[in-house]
Amino acid sequence: MYTPKTKVSDANVEKYLQVLEDETKRDEAFLLLDLFTKITGEEAKLWWDSIVGFWIYAYETKSCKWEWMRTGFAARKAGFSIYIMPWYDMGMEGLLQDLGKHKMWKSCLTIKRLTDIDIRILEKIIKKWFEIMEQKYPRSI
Predict the structure, then answer these.
(1) How far is CA 83 from the centre of its chain?
(2) CA–CA separation, 26 and 77 (whole Å)
(3) pLDDT tens digit string along 27-68?
(4) Is the peptide bond before 86 cis (omega within 30 degrees of 0)?
(5) CATH, residue 112
(6) Which of 11, 33, 60, 64 could form a disulfide with 2 if both were Cys (CB 3.0 to 4.6 A apart)?
(7) Are 17 and 27 in contact (CB under 8 A)?
(8) Is 8 within the bounds of a domain?
(9) How far is it, in rounded angstroms, from Cα 111 to Cα 80?
(10) Do 42 and 20 contact (CB within 8 A), yes or no?
(11) Is residue 7 in a domain?
């Protein structure tokens, strides 16, 4: 059975964000940290070495069993990856159209800078995703 490499760590999220080289990205990462914390009511955990995740749920497929975050974000070179998966099953096409400049991938929303989007729309998207996860995977961990 496959064992995922991405796991929750004991590393300090704020220390991780403090060392982001780009000052604007660092400031925006802390803004995202505050936004996600407000929405989820949960403490952030660092996953692997670069993903800020919120709340854990158990996930199982035919090939593996693992724990994963309900939602989160990562500061990447090209911008921010916002983990809301699977986006195509959320009924949020209207919100995504109003969000601003972004790209959607299979498991995340990618934003270059927060100034490229409407942060209020992003907040609605994250809230809706977290509510979906609350229904689909009730808190058990």
Answers:
(1) 3
(2) 12
(3) 999 999 999 999 999 999 999 888 999 988 877 778 777 788
(4) yes
(5) 3.90.1150.200
(6) 64
(7) no
(8) no
(9) 5
(10) no
(11) no
Instruction: Work out how many domains the chain is built from and give that number.
Output: 1
Could you tell me what percent of the chain has a pLDDT over 90?
Answer: 52
Q: What is the pTM for the complete model shown?
A: 0.87
Question: Which amino acid is present at 87?
Answer: W
Mind listing the pLDDT tens digit for each residue in 94-135?
888 899 999 988 778 999 999 999 999 999 999 988 888 888
For 40, other C-beta atoms within 10 Å of its C-beta total 21
Rounded CA gap, 74 and 6, in Å?
13
Is residue 70 within 8 Å of 47, Cβ to Cβ? no
The count of residues in the chain is 141
At 45 the pLDDT is 95
Beta bridge partners of 103: 110
Distance between CA 44 and CA 68 in Å, rounded?
13
Residue type present at position 65: K
Q: What is the pLDDT of residue 89?
A: 57
